[in-house]
Amino acid sequence: MFSKSCEYGIRAVLFIAQHSNGENYVGLKEIAKAQQIPEHFLSKVLQILVRHKILKSTRGLKGGFALYHSPDSINLLGIINAIDGMDLFDTCVLGMKECSSETPCPVHNQYKPVKEEFLRILSEKTLQKLVEDLNSGKTYIVLKQN
């Protein structure tokens, strides 16, 4: 559903949220290795998140990335918007160019409440909640093995 960049961005931000307290930074190499993401690609994604003030970065020996704001104020929708934008949620599920409330496609009226609920979930899922669920074992991030 989301781009590979967005998937990597979400995984990286979750990793940073788990391993940084805002004062210590998590290095690019550490994130890339732990999340099995190519470093060069991850670097570009993380810079997008820095520009959107989701992450902050610093260079040097103890450099890397940390959350720009507290984890309870960053939600999944903000990360998705920064990387993929909101166009994904505005396009017709069947790919029809003229689909709208005035000229609905055959599934527009059934899909609209599903989309609204999905957007609500993404906006309510903060990094704080996600990290708590990961740390408690309620949810998991399972990486594909190469």
Spatially, the strands of the biggest sheet line up as 1-2
Portion in helices: 40-55%
Question: Would you report the number of β strands?
Answer: 2
* Mean pLDDT reading: 92
Examine the secondary-structure arrangement and name the CATH architecture.
Answer: Orthogonal Bundle
Per CATH, the superfamily is: Winged helix-like DNA-binding domain superfamily/Winged helix DNA-binding domain
Q: Figure out the total of helices.
A: 7
- Poorly predicted runs are none
Structural class: mainly alpha
The CATH topology comes to: Arc Repressor Mutant, subunit A
**CA distance, first residue to last residue:** 22 Å
Biggest β-sheet, characterized? 2 strands, antiparallel
Shape: elongated
Beta-strand content estimate: 5-15%
Please describe what this structure looks like.
With 146 residues, the protein is mainly alpha-helical. It has one domain: Winged helix-like DNA-binding domain superfamily/Winged helix DNA-binding domain (Arc Repressor Mutant, subunit A, Orthogonal Bundle), CATH 1.10.10. 52% of the residues lie in helices and 5% in strands. It has 7 helices and 2 strands, in the order αααββαααα. It has a two-stranded antiparallel sheet. Helix 1 (4-19) packs across helix 2 (28-35) and helix 1 packs across helix 4. It is elongated. The mean pLDDT is 92.
